[in-house]
Task: inverse folding
């Protein structure tokens, strides 16, 4: 057994490079690839946060402050494209799906490590192509991240490179999902059947299916839009007989399941953290697992609720509204299960748990406001207002991104072998939580009173909401910087954490050392236990780390 | 360098041994991965068929008339040879699995030849359509007063046969690569997952044509010349 | 592992070759039907007839040429799941356009190329 961690040695796609940098660039080790994804993604995340704050600053007062209307259009497009295609769609799967999922099922790596490596670089190329159009002659696209036809076909800005980029990023996402699906089917440790998998793996599995089956639809849609633009084949251009509603259908056939692709792994993170810090077995394991599958399944069937105001037939509207309500059911089941897990438990309030609990509040707001705009009548009023913008920021930022942060605190010891400063982590959380609510809650009200989205200007009576939002935004950004500073300092100078600081039960905490060794578990254990077995607040299953046999 | 698979066992509480599946040499995993990949292709072409059907619902009459003008002789010829190529590809795989490597190579070459022939015929067909003033951004398709349904039909016709042809081209490339790997001794009767998957890919290319052909060429055949 | 066996089996060729030939003949016959159908039968429902033949051909290809029949069931289940989704996409979207509410006034249903 080698005592070196994955940070000290690695496997590469080809050759035996001596240089440390090349070893990182060529690595096929799933843990290192996950870290590289994180670096690129968070770089872009901060760029997009900067753009978001620029827009907020512009909206400080009615009229023009910083940027002109056309630039504002480009800003929200760039913000949306980065946040969606570059940041949150690869999101939790690219980081924790890569780093943690194989450890959780006792695999040595994903099924196709070289493909994983190639995917990462495909992703990087996609990012570069997206940015490339910034410096083109006509500037970045101004269509919004949805690229709706026919405007996207007629605008003079550089839409095509962005479409190409979205296609490449989509390919990378598809192949990552494929890789995870095969990994989960083939490489589980002996004895681990589907209902002995940790719930995060269930989340990744359901996500894999969405990546695989939904993404190609938007891929081909983008290709069709390019053909339309260059060859005038006619299919999205009303002047040639094309129907823009078809574009919206095809776009949302992907992009709606895509929001479940973001949230399902986040729910998985939640389902790991809650039992661990409640020191109790999760309530209703099967219902949590199957509701992930159900959300993925139903998620395919509801794309039409984005089209309520775009000229879809009334019959289809009714069908889609009806179906959409069903998504709330499995989501509700999950929430009740989490709450029931915490009931009468001795909860340990460490940073990951605090993040998870905070998310329960913000995501419930995001989720329930979603139900209100499921109703066609309500949606006619609220569509394209700040109400829906606040809704999806609550769901994505206050749900997915918050849980991603929770996961960063939770799995930090495995990845770095160190521990961050707990106090600062909590304080940063508090600042972010308050800032976030100040930033987006007023927007529900403004939207309800009719503040339209994607506007660079507004009526004076909305000023107060925008001012509060700006202040909240500043708090949020300071909190983010503080949190990242704290984590980075933790990695550099933190106390060694030991392999299982949280007394957690799933396999990734039964590694011989922290940070994880290159080849993961010394020996693969035989799994004949459920993932979260606690008795009197102590883990039930114990291993002899030499032989990986149970000794309890 | 990639790690070698070290056979490993997990031992349960009764002391029974269970073999651990590594990612290396995972034959079934390789197959499953390729099936999943084919789903993405299926979804892409489904979305195009969906587009096609969407406008068929709006313009059924235009579609049948436009379809009547396509060349069923060349299209039909291509249908038959593609079908035969699927057969040769399958036989090649059988040869490989039964240990006859040089026989397998001959069948792969035959498949490649047919695939190339398919593209040549397709080229003639497109040329002929061009001559009749039907081509992207050309002739009737930009003419004032031309029926929208026909315009859309031909737009999708060139898109879909074009993308299908692109897949044929990729197929030829894959087969060249396969032959190289066979010559290099990397694909052998004991280790033929690459051959298996490329054969699957070729069947998929054929499968798509099975639907492209009737949808474009045959729906207007009864009105044909 | 049983599923990972890639042993050389010389008898295999003779055994499976027969299947391949039979399927080829089946597919050729179906293709011939495709060609003559519009002139012989169901001429008013050419589209449906052609689609039906297409599905029959597809089934032969997937089941035998792509070996789905002899594959483990898990792949079959995955295929079925993917196809169900495709079906749903088609049915819903076509229902929508079938009930297009602006047929009389819309340019895309009444206009011609400008
Ligand atoms: C961190 C603080 C953030 C701020 C200050 C912020 C701010 C904004 C603002 C001002 C808009 C424009 C609204 C409009 O006028 O229509 C916007 C739109 C948007 N934001 Fe954010 N945002 C933040 C985080 C995020 C995150 C984390 C995501 C997703 C991962 C996200 C996704 C989007 C999307 C998709 C749009 C719509 C773009 C479009 O209309 O095309 N944002 N955001």
Result:
């Amino acid at each position: 057994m080698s005592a070196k961690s994955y940070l000290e040695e690695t496997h590469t796609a080809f050759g035996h490079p001596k240089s440390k940098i090349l070893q990182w660039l060529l690595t096929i080790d799933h843990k290192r690839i996950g870290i590289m994804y994180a670096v690129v993604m968070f770089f872009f995340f901060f760029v997009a946060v900067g753009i978001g704050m620029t827009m907020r600053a512009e909206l400080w007062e009615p009229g023009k402050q910083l940027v002109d209307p056309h630039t504002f259009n480009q800003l929200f497009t760039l913000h949306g494209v980065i946040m969606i295609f570059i940041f949150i769609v690869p999101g939790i799967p690219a980081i924790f799906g890569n780093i943690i999922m194989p450890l959780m099922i006792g695999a040595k790596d994903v099924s196709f490590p070289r493909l994983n490596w190639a995917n990462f670089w495909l992703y990087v190329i996609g990012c570069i192509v997206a940015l490339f159009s910034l410096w083109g002659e006509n500037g970045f696209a101004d269509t919004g991240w949805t690229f709706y036809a026919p405007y996207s076909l007629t605008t003079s800005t550089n839409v095509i490179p962005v479409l190409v980029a979205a296609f490449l990023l989509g390919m990378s996402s598809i192949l990552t999902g494929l890789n995870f699906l095969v990994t989960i089917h083939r490489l589980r440790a002996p004895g681990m059947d589907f209902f002995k998998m940790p719930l995060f793996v269930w989340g990744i599995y359901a996500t894999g299916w969405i990546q695989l089956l939904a993404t190609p639809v938007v891929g081909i849609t983008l290709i069709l839009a390019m053909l339309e633009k260059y060859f005038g084949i006619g299919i999205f251009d009303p002047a040639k007989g094309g129907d823009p509603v078809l574009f919206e259908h095809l776009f949302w056939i992907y992009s709606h399941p895509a929001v479940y692709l973001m949230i399902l792994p986040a729910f998985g993170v939640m389902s790991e953290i809650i039992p661990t810090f409640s020191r109790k077995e999760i309530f209703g394991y099967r219902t949590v697992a199957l509701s992930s599958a159900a959300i993925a399944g139903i998620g395919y069937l509801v794309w039409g609720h984005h089209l309520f105001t775009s000229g879809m037939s009334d019959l289809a509207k009714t069908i889609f509204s009806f179906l959409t309500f069903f998504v709330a059911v499995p989501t509700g089941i999950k929430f009740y299960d989490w709450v029931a897990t915490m009931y009468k438990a001795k909860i340990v309030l460490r940073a990951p748990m605090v993040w998870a609990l905070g998310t329960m509040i913000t995501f419930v707001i995001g989720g329930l406001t979603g139900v209100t705009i499921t109703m066609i009548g309500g949606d006619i009023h609220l569509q394209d207002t700040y109400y829906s913008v606040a809704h999806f920021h609550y769901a994505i930022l206050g749900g997915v991104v918050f849980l991603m942060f929770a996961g960063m605190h939770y799995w930090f010891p495995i990845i770095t072998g160190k521990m961050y400063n707990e106090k600062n982590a909590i304080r940063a959380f508090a600042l972010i939580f308050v800032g976030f609510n100040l930033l987006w809650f007023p927007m529900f009200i403004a939207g309800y009173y009719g503040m339209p989205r994607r506007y660079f200007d507004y009526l004076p009576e909305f000023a107060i909401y925008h001012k509060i939002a700006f202040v909240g935004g500043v708090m949020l950004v300071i909190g983010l910087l503080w949190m990242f500073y704290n984590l980075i300092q933790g990695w550099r100078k933190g106390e060694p954490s030991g392999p299982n600081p949280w007394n957690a039960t799933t396999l990734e905490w039964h590694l011989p050392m922290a940070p994880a060794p290159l080849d993961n578990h010394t020996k693969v254990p035989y799994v004949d236990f459920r993932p979260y077995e606690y008795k009197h607040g102590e883990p039930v299953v114990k291993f002899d780390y030499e032989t990986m046999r149970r000794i309890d | 360098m990639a790690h070698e698979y070290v056979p490993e066992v997990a031992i349960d509480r009764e002391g029974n041994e269970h073999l651990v599946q590594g990612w290396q040499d995972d034959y079934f995993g390789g197959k499953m991965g390729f099936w999943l990949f084919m789903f993405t292709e299926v979804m892409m072409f489904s979305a195009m068929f969906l587009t096609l059907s969407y406008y068929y619902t709006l313009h059924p009459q235009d579609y049948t008339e436009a379809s009547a003008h396509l060349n069923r002789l060349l299209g039909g010829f291509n249908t038959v040879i593609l079908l035969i190529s699927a057969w040769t590809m399958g036989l090649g795989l059988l040869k490989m699995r039964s240990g006859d490597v040089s026989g397998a190579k001959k069948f792969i070459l035959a498949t490649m030849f047919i695939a190339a022939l398919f593209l040549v015929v397709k080229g003639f067909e497109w040329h002929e359509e061009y001559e009749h003033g039907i081509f992207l951004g050309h002739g009737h398709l930009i003419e004032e007063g031309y029926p929208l349904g026909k315009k859309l039909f031909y737009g999708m016709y060139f898109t879909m046969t074009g993308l299908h042809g692109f897949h044929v081209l990729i197929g030829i490339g894959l087969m060249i690569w396969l032959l190289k790997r066979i010559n290099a001794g990397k694909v052998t009767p004991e280790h033929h997952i690459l051959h298996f998957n490329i054969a699957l890919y070729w069947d998929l290319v054929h499968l798509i044509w099975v639907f492209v052909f009737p949808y474009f060429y045959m729906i207007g055949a009864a009105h044909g010349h | 592992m049983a599923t990972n066996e890639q042993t050389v089996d010389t008898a295999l060729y003779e055994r499976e070759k027969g299947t391949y030939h039979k399927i080829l003949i089946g597919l050729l016959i179906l293709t011939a039907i495709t060609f003559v159908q519009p002139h012989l039968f169901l001429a008013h429902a050419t589209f449906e007839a052609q689609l039906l033949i297409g599905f029959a051909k597809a089934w032969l290809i997937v089941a035998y040429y792509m070996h789905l029949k002899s594959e483990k069931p898990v792949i079959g289940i995955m295929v079925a799941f993917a196809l169900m989704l495709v079906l749903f996409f088609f049915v819903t979207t076509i229902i929508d356009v079938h009930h297009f509410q602006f047929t009389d006034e819309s340019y895309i249903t009444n206009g011609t190329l400008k």
Q: What stands out?
A: Chain B touches chain C through 67 residues (CB under 8 Å). The first strand of chain B starts at residue 9 and ends at 11. Residues 24-222 of chain B form a domain with the Four Helix Bundle (Hemerythrin (Met), subunit A) fold (CATH 1.20.120.80). Chain B has six helices and four strands.
